[in-house]
Amino acid sequence: MTPAPRTSRQAARLVAGSPAIAQAHFRAEALPYHPRLRPDGWLNLGTAENRLVQDLHEGTPPRPLTARDTRYAPLYGTPELRAHIARHLADLGGGPVDPEDLVLVAGATAALDVAATALCDPGQAIVIPTPCYGAFDTDLAGRSGARLLPAPPDARDGHSLSVPAVDRTLTEARRDGVDVRAVALASPANPTGQVHAPADLRDLAEAAAHHGVDIVADEIYAGSVFGPLPFTSLRTVAADPARIHTVWGFAKDFGLPGFKAGVLHTTDPDTRAAARALAYFAPVSTHTQAHLTDLLADPARVRHFHAENRRRLGASHARATALLDAFGIPCAPAQAGCSLWADLAAWLPCPGFTGERRLWQEILDRTHVSILPGEAFHAPRPGWFRVCHSLDAALVEEALTRLGRLLTTKGAPHVDAPHPAAAPAGPARPLV
Amino acid sequence: MTPAPRTSRQAARLVAGSPAIAQAHFRAEALPYHPRLRPDGWLNLGTAENRLVQDLHEGTPPRPLTARDTRYAPLYGTPELRAHIARHLADLGGGPVDPEDLVLVAGATAALDVAATALCDPGQAIVIPTPCYGAFDTDLAGRSGARLLPAPPDARDGHSLSVPAVDRTLTEARRDGVDVRAVALASPANPTGQVHAPADLRDLAEAAAHHGVDIVADEIYAGSVFGPLPFTSLRTVAADPARIHTVWGFAKDFGLPGFKAGVLHTTDPDTRAAARALAYFAPVSTHTQAHLTDLLADPARVRHFHAENRRRLGASHARATALLDAFGIPCAPAQAGCSLWADLAAWLPCPGFTGERRLWQEILDRTHVSILPGEAFHAPRPGWFRVCHSLDAALVEEALTRLGRLLTTKGAPHVDAPHPAAAPAGPARPLV
Hints:
Two copies of one chain form a homodimer. Chain A is α/β, with parallel strands linked by helices. Helices cover 40% and strands 12% of the residues of chain A. Chain A has 14 helices and 13 strands. Chain A has helices at 9-16, 20-30, 54-57, 67-70, 79-93, 108-119, 136-141, 163-175, 198-211, 269-279, 286-296, 299-326, 352-367, 393-410; strands at residues 43-44, 102-105, 125-129, 147-151, 180-186, 214-218, 244-249, 262-265, 331-332, 339-343, 369-370, 372-373, 384-388. A seven-stranded mixed β-sheet of chain A has the order 2-8-7-6-5-3-4, with helices on both faces. In chain A, helix 5 packs across helix 11, helix 8 runs parallel beside helix 9 (198-211) and helix 12 (299-326) runs parallel beside helix 14. The longest helix of chain A has 28 residues, at 299-326. The model of chain A is unreliable at 414-432 (pLDDT under 50). Chains A and B meet through helix 1, helix 2, helix 4, helix 6 and helix 10 of A and helix 1, helix 2, helix 4, helix 6 and helix 10 of B.
């Protein structure tokens, strides 16, 4: 008999709920595709990693290590970096930001954990419009002990934010005696890449205020909007801004996911005090903070960086949707971020999420392309997949061609397979 | 009426228990002493920050930013850095270390939190031999929800590790129905700077095994031993090494506290899985990891660094004890680390920890010297203070001279004030 683990129940729960996204990432990265060296290698379109702007960092002069960079600093961020981030967030979303309202921690994940833990005790709930960012389960609930209540939209809502669904979920939770503390969402949205309209965000803030709950808005894609609708920060639309807590980070807009630098903005003094206390457990290295301070110190360079980022994300999104379209794969066009939301429902081998899981496995096994199934994002209906396109165009083309060919050979629903110039049709390449 | 805070009870508890050490640090750093510009400024001998080796980092060539340094990596540390740390820990404490048993997180604080959370559910207990590292209260209990049970030594135990005290506390806890999961200690010790004898560590491991509890050993000063007794890692002495979880970091031995890079070593598969899952919330920037990889990559340089660190810490400790001695202030000589343990019991204005608190306040107000009272370290008897000496010799001399003069003017117990050459006697300088 295997002895029972001696670890805590809270840790065992976390291990059991380890995010599928992170696991898929490292599996797909272990044996990467190379056109010559490993033509049957893996292509990772599962991770929302923005690799389109790495060259823009190459000009950054390395900063010699100073004594100051090595020493203790306030564990919620150096005043210099917070001042720069405050200015940057104001530029992105409108309205001034006080650096004292910013709490820097080791990534947006940590910032979400800090927000959830500051607001919730174990058993209290957070309402999440779905589909939602797949790691919300871990980020918001993993350490805080909060539980997530999905607010699925009606089919007629399409891919827009459905405030009635949130309102209905809040009403039902109250009826059922569930102690809801907050609504949490990604804005711009992930996985769908939707930019929420200011009117929708205002309605959401009103609904939350009506039910007496706070809002946690993950605005990590604030600077990655390439569609016509500009980004609006939730902090600018609420009647009581102290009830809005926003998260941002350097991972997406600056393509620096490894730096694990995220920030929580909150004007509520109690939440801020709690967040500062929690930041003690997840600080960012002063070494990296010094580098990020240098990065933000040149406004002209930041403006150029962002313009390039938006232009490249938009072009990459356009190429990816054109490829999918050429194979007859429908998708919901995105306006922001690294991913799009593709509809493979017509190819499910059997109904429901069982069919989605089987199709996902088949795509992995037969194409070595990692894309993530909608179930990982609490998609309300089966068959949707998140496709990340923010990497080298040739890799995206190879991956979507493999995917398109597989679906074409499966024959449904498009028996007349398209033959795009970029992706000549043919049997799926056998992969070992 | 002030409205009740809307933050969680778990966050409010953390805010209320915010570590005194961190608060004292930033207060003392705000208006620092300068011989010419601010002669009445603050001198911070309260923080165990090793500033004696900063010049040794200045030769480090800054590393140009590569794409790899910016990207996602395993959130418990890159394989490269963990391999280097494994080799380094083996060099420090004897016996090989498997890099797969290392979980890198954002500082030793985070590593202690990870260990405690992996082992304990809220309400379970950790036994702590006292005096102990003052931040254990927050690091081990703040997020995990564990409670700490002090194991105070008998007066006759002196400053050595008292295994009988730990054994007695474990026995009493079982009798009282307390669910103890671990014993935690700093080894080498903090605040006393004692290097624990291998026999004591073996006895401790046996006692813990007898009671069926794990050991969490904070070995952050492993490379900062300047006394004759070499460091022995607890991982090398236990019959069942899987029950020993050790913590190390770059803050002390390498004088890089701002880098917030700590590591948990555990060979227990369940604890390791739990620690990796928890590391997701407190990762270290790949940028800083790359720098630390470079730092450890040159064994000859690391050996020189450590030899210098030990030599400088030893010299600094000798200077500090000589100054205290010249003023007739007794202290327990240290063999490791950044601090010594000074006995000001004779100067307490009234008995008990009330007297200690009043003396502490008087020292702060009248000398602007920050040293921390024993109560912050769960000292079993009042009157002891932790004095950190690992900073510029002139600053230590200024601080201890101010302290010595104040105590001299207080007149008890040494009415004949000493007149050391380094610290001419005279009235305490009035401070604003």
